[in-house]
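User: For my dataset I need records formatted as: sequence, then structure tokens, nothing else. Please produce one.
Assistant:
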Amino acid sequence: MMMRAQNINPIAHPEMQKKMKAMSAKYCHTKPKKGYTLECLTTESGTKYQRIKKENAVSSGKVIYYTHGGCYISGLTYNYRDFCAPFCDLAEGVEIILLDYTLMPDSGYPTQLNEALDLWDELTVKRKIDPKNIIIGGDSSGGNLALALILKLKDTEREQPNSIFLLSPWTDMTASGESYVKNYQRDVEIGDRNGAFEGHTKRKLLNSYLYDYIGINDRTDPYISPAFADYSGFPPMLLFAGEDEMLLDDTLTVYEKAKNAGVNVKLETQPKTFHFYVTLKNFITGRLK
């Protein structure tokens, strides 16, 4: 069960950064979900990750490689493992690989992207797993990182994974979508029901701790804001977004650009739902089969 969503609007709740870090530390225990095994591992380059398998299962070489959300502030808490563990039921011997990337403020871009690529090489080069047997997934900032990883694989002429699924991905660090304005009072996690997303509010949001990951880099860099990427040559994609979330257009932009680039892409949105709503229902497993 995922932890209950909290409003992390940095304007209305400037104290939430400390609370996010504290909550993350509290829930980053490594007790496995019942019926599954858990290993905490590290690559030779120092990238941390976790591997989940069903108890007594023999690995088949099929992998779900997942990058978690949390604004690059919150860590790999148990709720992500509990959410991802049922993906093992997609096929016999499927294992889940969870990237445990470095958090802010210890390090920002491009550290997390380098770690994601390092773990990809750990799987495909060291362990010799066929990229076509790997599905990449991610939510929110993890969706941002998953897209950046795919773009990096493309740009470095590495083989692409089988497919990718994204849950309310954070793709536009310029916050330029109309949904930021339209849904500001509706979004229970990032918005403010008593506020309005006007020029001053937008500037304060973009200069808040939520965007510290960017550092001094260009917000429109496709590795930072995948909404500005070229999607030609991307693998099949499955996208989810809530119609009441501010980041709705972050997903819709990626969908339209991928579709126009000839990518096999599918989109599911749900009315009156919020950021990362899929954690509350079993939306994913049946669609990945």
